[in-house]
Design brief:
With about 110 residues, this protein is an all-alpha fold. The chain has one domain: Lysozyme, CATH 1.10.530.10. Helices cover about 60% and strands about 0% of the residues. The chain has helices at about 1-5, 25-30, 40-55, 65-75, 75-80, 90-110. Helix 4 packs across helix 5 (about 75-80). The longest helix has 21 residues, at about 90-110. The protein is globular, with a radius of gyration of 14 Å. The relative contact order is 0.10.
């Protein structure tokens, strides 16, 4: 996820105003008590936020991780509004790229090569 968000750049700043390695919007960072300029704090905050989304979505969606990634990218209100992944091309591509990388990692770890 961090590769997709910022290419691991702790100084990343998006055109929308998202900050740091985990690309927190300032109001989201403040809401969860994260310093988006501090890579370690930002990574821990992103993990907690994503994990919280996944836990919240576990009973509602077939794949709570997909919903959690959608919430991280498009916001939890969009996930609620669309009852799952919103129909935004950016969000769908974001999820697909992360799942593709995840599948390659799992394949490599199981001896499938790269």
């Amino acid at each position: 996820m961090l590769l997709q968000e910022s290419a691991y750049d702790p100084q990343a700043l998006s055109s929308a105003g998202a900050i740091g390695v985990a690309q927190f919007m300032p109001e989201t960072a403040a809401g969860v008590g994260v310093d988006p300029y501090d890579p370690l704090d930002s990574i821990a905050g992103a993990a907690a936020l994503l994990g919280g989304y996944a836990a919240d979505y576990a009973a509602r969606y077939n794949d709570p991780y997909v919903a959690a990634l959608a919430a991280y990218n498009a916001g939890p209100l969009a996930v609620e509004e669309y009852r799952g992944v919103p129909p935004y091309a950016e969000t769908r591509e974001y999820i697909a790229l992360i799942y593709e990388r995840w599948a390659r990692i799992i394949s490599y770890e199981r001896g499938g090569g790269g």
